[in-house]
Write a structure and sequence with these properties.
alpha+beta; Beta-Lactamase; 5-stranded antiparallel beta sheet; 5-stranded mixed beta sheet; 8 helices
């Protein structure tokens, strides 16, 4: 069953239940009012008749009948019956009308205490009766007054069970149609969401759900979904760029290796020429290894959980990193210098070391032979700071925002700085760059400071 049908059925059911409860409550209240009015009228009539009968002490129907008939006529719809102690009828205002069973007289309480009861008689009529025992009249007589209980609906033409059933069926049909329309209007935005989702699943990531301002929870849901779709589209674009750049980074060394190998196979190379080609192939394999390692590092960054950071002295930390960085700078005779200032920070040493080595490796590949890369530690704005600065050619300001994109390549694998940022941000750090042509590149890493209690 569709959600729309469920909502329509729920609307019909709940509305029908509410109508039923309201009708029962109104009918019960109205019936109580009718019975209260009938009891009041019966009580008043019982008082009048008992006063009339108790006047002489002995019942003389031949003398009282005219007065009783006059009372019955004046009562208008009220029936009067008098029985002796053996329950024989002594007087009846209208013998042809239906009467309640005489067993009702057994429940009447003597001494002018009136007991009221309801009875259904033949023909479907309902009577409200008041029974009263008068012990002082002719050795005791029973006085019973009856009044039909009728509602104004009884007098309406066509108010029959079939007509009521037809009316109820028509009302339920109307409520069903209204529920179907209301459910359709309520679910229309969901239909649009489904349509957009189907379009997006087909590859159209630029599709968005029409916003519904002022629609409360549903409007907020649509805004959240649109934000999610925008993030998915952005991620997809970056992944395509990343895949394209990685394929290019891998294709270049493979093409070089293949070309050199084919040339080697076409001729009769000597040992020296073969060694030269193998050394070139080894260098290209090392380039490919760097690319693959960076890809694996990115994959781990996207899936692994971040471990809690620990307290470290950054002056000691950068000195340790500088020794490893010297290996990277050695082939181009570049210098790694440090300006350590004793400062503590909460870091993950392994991740921060890898991030710094990626930054330094980027500098090594972009600056001239014999250039200098300087590592500094300090404090700024209440945070611990590590700065990596080189004296290379620098880059244009318009290229700075793209340095951290996966796949962007100024030199190297095109993954290093993006991976460095991901590593630093994994333990609440921040990485920024600044540069200008001819003034080198400065990478600034801000880290959470150590709490005073831990120093």
């Amino acid at each position: 069953m569709t959600l729309r049908r469920r909502l329509a059925l729920l609307y019909i059911t709940s509305t029908a239940v509410l109508f039923l409860v309201a009708a029962l409550t109104a009918g019960f209240s109205y019936r109580r009012g009718l019975i209260a009015q009938a009891d009041k009228r019966l009580m008043s009539a019982a008082d009048e008749v008992s006063e009339l009968l108790e006047g002489g002490g002995r019942l003389r129907l031949d003398l009282l009948r005219p007065a009783l008939d006059a009372f019955s006529d004046a009562a208008g719809g009220l029936y009067l019956d008098i029985y002796d102690s053996a329950k024989n009828t002594l007087y009846s205002s209208d013998p042809g009308l239906p009467r309640p069973p005489r067993t009702a007289l057994q429940g009447a309480v003597p001494r002018k205490r009136v007991q009221f009861r309801n009875y259904s008689v033949s023909g479907g009529a309902e009577l409200r009766t008041a029974a009263l025992f008068l012990p002082a009249v002719s050795g005791g007589i029973w006085l019973e007054l009856s009044l039909p209980i009728q509602t104004p609906l009884n007098d309406l033409p066509g108010f029959t069970v079939p007509n009521i059933a037809l009316f109820s069926l028509a009302l339920l049909s109307l409520m069903g149609w209204a529920g179907w329309v209301i459910a359709g209007r309520a679910l229309a935005p969901i239909g649009r969401i489904v349509a957009v989702a189907e379009t997006v699943s087909g590859g159209a990531l630029s599709e968005r759900i029409p916003s519904l301002p002022g629609e409360g929870e549903l409007g907020r849901l649509i805004d959240v979904l649109n934000g999610m779709l925008a993030a998915i589209e952005d991620y997809s674009v970056k992944m395509r760029q990343f895949a394209s750049n990685v394929s290019h980074q891998l294709r270049t060394p493979i093409t070089i290796m293949r070309g050199e190998t084919e040339v080697l196979l076409l001729g009769k190379p000597g040992a020296g020429e073969m060694k030269k080609v193998l050394e070139s192939n080894l260098a290209e394999l090392e380039t490919m290894t760097v690319v693959i390692e960076d890809i694996l590092s990115y994959s781990r960054m996207d899936t692994e959980k971040t471990a809690p950071p620990g307290l470290e002295d950054l002056s000691i930390f950068i000195s340790r990193v500088a020794k490893k960085a010297a290996v990277l700078a050695g082939p181009k005779s570049q210098k790694i210098e440090t300006e350590p200032l004793k400062v503590y920070a909460l870091i993950q040493p392994g991740k921060l070391e890898q991030a710094l080595l990626n930054v330094i490796d980027n500098a090594v590949k972009n600056i001239q032979e014999g250039g200098t890369i300087t590592l500094r530690t300090g404090e700024a704005g209440g945070k611990a700071v590590i700065t990596v600065e080189d004296n290379g050619p620098g880059i244009r300001s318009e290229d700075l925002p793209r340095l951290f994109e996966r796949g962007y390549s100024n030199s190297g694998s095109g993954l290093g700085l993006g991976l460095a940022r991901a590593l630093v941000e994994s333990f609440s750090g921040k990485i920024e760059v600044s540069s200008a042509p001819g003034r080198g590149l400065t990478v600034r890493i801000s880290l959470p400071p150590a709490p005073a209690a831990k120093l």
